[in-house]
Amino acid sequence: MVTINFGLWIKDHDIDDHYKLEGPVFRRWSPDGENDALKFSVLDDSVDIFLWFERHGYIDDSGFIRYEHKKFEIDPEVLPKQKKIYTGALYGKVILHSVSPAQITALKEDDTTNEEYIGLGKLVLKKILDPILSRFTRLLKHTYGQYWIEVYQKFDSRKLPLANHCHNLNMKWSLQTGESGKFLPGTKEIESIIINASSCEEHEYISQEEWFNIQNLLSGNFEPSLSSVFASRSNRLLEEERYSHSLIEAVTAIELSLEEFVRRTINFDQRLEENMRSFWKNPLPTRITLVASLAGVNTDDVGLSISGVTERNKFVHDGLEPDQKVKKFIEGLLRTISHLNNNQNLKYPDADNSNSLGFPI
Predict the structure, then answer these.
(1) How far apart are CA 248 and CA 349, in angstroms?
(2) In a domain, 180, yes or no
(3) Roughly what angle, to the nearest 10 degrees, separates helices 327-340 and 284-294?
(4) Which runs of consecutive H residues, i.e. helices, occur in the chain?
(5) Cα–Cα distance, 237 to 245 (Å, whole number)
(6) Are both 233 and 173 inside the same structural domain?
(7) Whether residue 25 is found in the same domain as residue 52
(8) What is the C-alpha separation between 106 and 111, in angstroms, rounded?
């Protein structure tokens, strides 16, 4: 059996520094390292994967939790009293229950160019980590709306050597005998290429129950909907006060969410979809009114959504630049989209780290 530990920053390096958080934000709770790790089994249960976040930080003199990566001094009794709790890097480990003697020998001898070693590295990345980390970060970014998180970039030998990719993941191997070392299959280039890796309600951050539900979502092959991608992007642009761009993304998102909702409702029946063709020729406000109302969306949000479409049309067709007054229309659109996305309600948190204390009760 071989264990490979790893850790990586999942912050979006392209985002403005004011909104550049180190990891996901939880509310009144945060994962306690490996004690609260999510577990997945793959490759016929021959491999176990664990993912977790640590409780980085300390309690200041006023009783607030302050994030600090090098400290682990959080009193768990304080967690329920704090609205926003900041995490940091994503940690994890891969346990391979079936490894050949040749691969173990290559690890022990640090024979990084050995084909057995390289083969093991490609297996760990391509078959094990790439799929789960890509889906996990997409889910955090789009379904849970934490747009400051960067979607994990899968290994691509055209962009980065195998050893460099493993180096960026801080990968280390260990055996049951206690032997260990850095996991660097192949040849590492000297210069590592770097791949770009509040005002809202507290329920928009990740709760304890939702953290453990992520395991069920990923185990069930859940993928964020296309509408959620546009909705998350709209929320980010809204917070950055880029109203015209946010409005366009939100209207695109609701068009997609209407179609996704109807298709789920009729259970993807091809015959029924054929009969819906004439419906999609109706103006967007008509489609929103009918589908959202039947779906039980709050009537105020339906009205705000329609107003949002009107404002978008004024901008696109008449060149009238939206201002702050469209904020309530965008928020109505986003709430409607979340309701229509009934298989997983979307979240729209903010990334403002100007108050890292998180407003305790």
Answers:
(1) 19
(2) yes
(3) 50
(4) 101-108, 115-122, 130-138, 162-168, 208-219, 226-239, 243-265, 270-275, 284-294, 299-318, 327-340
(5) 7
(6) no
(7) yes
(8) 5
Token pair belonging to 13 = 């390096």
Q: pLDDT, tens digit, for every residue of 131-177?
A: 999 999 999 999 999 988 989 999 988 888 999 999 999 999 999 98
* Alpha-carbon dihedral sign for residues 108, 112, 115, 118: positive
Is 197's pLDDT higher than 90? no
Per-residue pLDDT tens for 258-314? 999 998 888 877 778 787 888 888 999 999 999 999 988 989 999 999 999 999 998
Q: Measuring CA to CA, which residue among 349, 346, 319 is closest to residue 335?
A: 346
Q: Which phi and psi angles does 199 have, rounded to 5°? A: -90, -15
Q: What one-letter code names the amino acid at 158?
A: R
- Give the residue from 190, 313, 183 showing the smallest Cα distance to 247: 313
Residue-number span of the structural domain to which 235 is assigned? 225-340
* pLDDT higher than threshold 60 for residue 199: no
Q: How many domains does the chain have?
A: 2
Structure tokens at 29: 């709770």
Distance CA 350, CA 358 (A): 12
Q: Is 152 helix (H, G, I), strand (E, B) or coil?
A: coil
What is the side-by-side order of every strand in the sheet holding 57-59? 65-66, 57-59, 72-73
Model pTM score: 0.70
Q: Are residues 94 and 210 in the same domain?
A: yes
My answer on whether 24 and 111 are in the same domain is yes
> What is the token pair recorded at 110?
């640090």
CA 170 to chain centre: 20
339 dihedral zone (left: phi>0; alpha: psi -120 to 50; beta): alpha
Q: Which residues contact 10 (CB under 8 A, 6 or more apart)?
A: 23, 89, 90, 137, 140, 149, 150, 152, 197
Contact 79, 54 (CB under 8 A): no
Question: Is residue 108 in a domain?
Answer: yes
